[in-house]
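B., you asked whether I could sanity-check this one before it goes into the benchmark set. Here's the sequence:
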Amino acid sequence: MANAAALVTILSVLSPLAGLFLEISLAWKFGASGTVDAFRTAYLLIGFGTQLFVGFLLPHIIVPVISRYRADGNEGVGWRVALTFGQTLTFAALLFAAWVLAYPAPLNHLLAPGLRGASLAQSLSLMRLFALAVAIVLWCGVVTGILHVHQIFVLPLVSQLICNLSIAAGVVLCAGRGTAGIVIGSSFGFGIMFLLHVYALVRIARQTGIPLLSTFRPAPVADVAAVFLRSVPLLVLAFAGMAGTAILTSAVSRLSTGSLAIFGYASKLQMVVLFGSGSLATVIFPALSGALARREEQIFSQLATRGVRMVLLLTVPLTGLAYVLREPLVHIVFDRGALSPTDLAMVAHLFAILLLQAPASALSFLLLKVFFARGDTRSPAVFHLLVPVALYLMMPAAIGRFGGSGILVALDFVSWLVTLSLLLYATARYRIIEWRPLGRFCVMLAIFSAVLALPAVGVHHLFELLGPPRFLLNVAELAAAAGLTAPLAFFASRALSLAEAREIENFLIWRFRWQDRFSHLGGFSKC
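And here's what the prediction gave me:
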């Protein structure tokens, strides 16, 4: 599992880096303009499709279903049920695409009522394209569930990487033609994504001996109906998340032109903190499902507990470091092209606010895996219904108190409210956490994070004395901060007895076989 997590983490770094390259391309060619506002609005369809089908519905329905059939020796039947379920959803997605192709304006007004003029026209055009791509995302979500059952996590991330690079290449090569580059890059990227998932499905069918064509025959109605009934809470959960996103986007779109672009740039930088925890949650889900399928409750609780502690270790210290070093990070990524110094300052400010809810987002994602592995989709759906309701109620007061930044302040508060509620409920119902050990761990983790952040603060103040931010100066600042914090993390984790940090270190030693590589130096392995 750790090996799979490492591979997924590597790709989870490369894929957001490709996404960051897309953001850099947009900032370089378009800056904080209405064109980027239009792209952000239209691309919400892909975000919603990914969130609904790949993030929530399909893997968390398909993985338990196929795991159950596989445990009984009937994996082929599980494929039939999953593919019939997916084909039904694909038909619904195509109907949705047809509606958007004919009437994109009502949906655009719902998501971003503040768009006007050229931005509105560009958004309507891009929405037609991305509505068709939603059907491709849905189909890939079905295949992703099958891949996860077989412990294959690479392909979805590779596909996302290719899509991001393809769109970025279109932006760079066709920047003078408005949104034409986005259209060309998106068409190529999503086409490659579809072909890769088809190839993966054919290959797994050959390896397992499952006749692929027979799995496309309709499954028994009762089995498919049972899957649909189980998916209803997940649909509620996904739509709650989409409603929350729509409320945020609608509020931002009413601000000045370019606000959606700036908020999007800040949001993408948050992946600097979240990539490792997301990988861990992805690869731990099949293990949690497998433990329950074997009725190993103790192992399930141990995996969930270690997952919570590891997610906090992977996010809290990084959040502190990213908060301290947010200005050089923003300047390294975006200080070029059409973004003005005022835009850069606003991106750094919004990034700082978003960082405050990064640990909550990571922990919430893991807790969803815990609930889904147990087949409990209703509980998280109920809790996540708080998101759009609370955002809708809090947004006016937050904007009145903090201005446009209040939109993200409200998001921070709601994220922590929902995450802590999920943690309390999961602990009370499934006994996955012992509070006293977790409390001691959180105290040690807070000390550990402060120990790492203080030298970074000193480095940042030192480099501020050297003059205004420049690219090489910002790179040197990050390098100096990393050079100080890496050895400090090594010794501080031992002094504070953070077992999870030692597990990461031991895994790295095993994974890269450092002992084998340096054994000729004599006595190294004994040390």
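One thing to flag: Confidence is low (pLDDT under 50) at residues 510-527. Otherwise nothing jumped out at me.
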